[in-house]
Amino acid sequence: MKAYPLEKFRASENQEYRIAFLSRNAAEVHTHYIEKAEGSMYFWCFEGTCCEVLGPTRPKVAFWIAMYDTSPDGQIISANVTVRYMVLGKKDYDDLVSIDRKTQNTGGLENLDFCIRCSDEKYQKYTIFPIGEATWKKYPEMVNFIMPEWEKLKPYLQGAIARTITLAQFLEAVGGGAAITHNPSAPQNMPQRTYPQGFGR
Ligand SMILES: [Zn+2]
Predict the structure, then answer these.
(1) Does residue 48 sit within a domain?
(2) Among 15, 65, 103, 200, which is least packed, fewest CB within 10 Å?
(3) Could you tell me the distance, in angstroms and rounded to a whole number, from the CA of residue 34 to the centre of ligand 1?
(4) Predicted model pTM
(5) 24: domain range?
(6) What angle do CA 95, 4, 145 make, to 5 degrees?
């Protein structure tokens, strides 16, 4: 059983992947990470005490992708596809923007397939490079699966990326009192961050 209907793309070292970006629009991701013995967690930055205690977030972006069913060397072996999201750092994002610009005459990012090779499973380091036209757009059976599936999963993105927590929950997670003493003026009711709207491209 899947714990959550929407899963993040994770790469393994002994597998090549073939994916397509469903949209050139990326959602901005500003999260913090707390590592604890009982279990680590990602949560959405609420632009306050979290940044003061843990330092600023390292901005990332999330893209919607379709992942093809492939052999270990990345060849598509069936019409099965899975809709996932992929979190990328600034460098990968910049590379994709550059590819998008250079391929505008053929529809840009959204009309391409990409190959992914993973060099470090633990830290999820991988290279992404374009590998031809978007396969799924040529097969009605893939289109007919992906479009409603994507629509169904859209509302789960924010919750899949990280938890939304309050200041009180944050202080409890980092050990309570110490943080409060350290920041005596910390406001008690931080506004919740609005859902990221993407880079507005
Ligand atoms: Zn923060």
Answers:
(1) yes
(2) 200
(3) 12
(4) 0.84
(5) 16-182
(6) 70
